């Protein structure tokens, strides 16, 4: 019983720091009661409760489809797009997306909803900035280690572009690419 309470308390503390409660349509205690147990069992076996830690909190939150706020040391899939405000440009939009390199061939692979954050087949996530042409084709512009760095580069290219300063992964909310913008 103590391990259950410890894990639940740890998840609650973690959630208060990383979940955008304004995005929830459910009452938080009822949501936990309804979904935490099943989400936990998709991440760890029932007898591994003593090993529950902060990285498991993220995995459980993603399985619960909670709106997770991007933070420096939090690997979440981000995919946001914003219209280019500069007329006459070849890019109609810009896009920032979380990507990871495959350890097998070194190629970048988008990190998307449903992917395991700590998948050992991939390196550390980073953020790619793309220009999006009128026909939807992507032109890779640059990679940056953090979202803030990609956001700053986008602001230099297209001042005033409306990327969120702190995006939220929210698989239930519909937007341009399935993420909050």
Write the layout of secondary structure elements.
Elements: H1 2-18, H2 28-43, H3 54-63, E1 68-69, E2 79-83, E3 93-101, E4 108-110, E5 126-132, E6 138-144, H4 147-157, E7 168-169
Structure characteristics:
181 residues, alpha+beta, 2 domains, five-stranded antiparallel β-sheet, disordered C terminus
Summarize the entry for a quick read.
By secondary structure, the chain is an alpha+beta fold. The protein has helices at 2-18, 28-43, 54-63, 147-157, and strands spanning 68-69, 79-83, 93-101, 108-110, 126-132, 138-144, 168-169. The strands form two sheets. Strands 2, 3, 4, 5 and 6 form a five-stranded antiparallel beta sheet that branches.
Order of helices and strands: HHHEEEEEEHE
Instruction: Output the structural class.
Output: alpha+beta
User: Roughly what fraction of the amino acids lie in strands?
Assistant: 15-25%
Low-confidence stretches: 173-181
Relative helix content: 25-40%
Task: Identify the overall geometry.
Answer: elongated
What is the gyration radius calculated from CA atoms? 18 Å
Number of domains: 2
> How many helices?
4
Describe the biggest sheet?
5 strands, antiparallel
Give average pLDDT, whole number.
87
Count of beta strands: 7
Distance between the termini: 40 Å
Describe this structure in words.
The chain is an alpha+beta fold. The chain folds into two domains: 2-68, no CATH class; 79-169, no CATH class. Helix content is 30%, strand content 19%. The chain is built from four helices and seven strands, in the order αααββββββαβ. The protein has helices at 2-18, 28-43, 54-63, 147-157, and strands at 68-69, 79-83, 93-101, 108-110, 126-132, 138-144, 168-169. The strands form two sheets. Strands 2, 3, 4, 5 and 6 form a five-stranded antiparallel sheet that branches. The protein has a two-stranded antiparallel sheet with strand order 1-7. Helix 2 (28-43) packs across helix 3. The chain starts with a helix and ends in a 12-residue tail after the last strand. Residues 173-181 have low confidence and may be disordered.
């Amino acid at each position: 019983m103590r391990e259950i309470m410890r894990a639940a308390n740890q998840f609650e503390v973690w959630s208060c720091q990383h979940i955008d409660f304004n995005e929830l349509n459910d009452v938080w205690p009822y949501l936990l009661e309804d979904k935490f147990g099943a989400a936990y069992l998709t991440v760890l076996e029932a007898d591994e409760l003593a090993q529950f830690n902060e990285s498991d909190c993220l995995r459980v939150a993603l399985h619960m489809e909670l709106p997770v706020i991007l933070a420096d040391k939090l690997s979440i899939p981000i995919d946001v797009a914003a219209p280019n405000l500069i007329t006459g440009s070849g890019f109609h939009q810009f896009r920032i997306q979380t990507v990871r390199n495959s350890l097998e061939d070194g190629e970048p692979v988008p990190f998307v909803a449903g992917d395991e954050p700590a998948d050992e087949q991939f390196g550390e996530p980073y953020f790619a900035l793309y220009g999006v042409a009128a026909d939807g084709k992507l032109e890779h512009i640059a990679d940056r280690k953090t979202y803030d760095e990609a956001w700053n580069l986008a602001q230099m290219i297209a001042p005033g572009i409306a990327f969120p300063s702190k995006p939220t992964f929210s698989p239930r909310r519909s937007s341009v690419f399935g993420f909050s913008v």
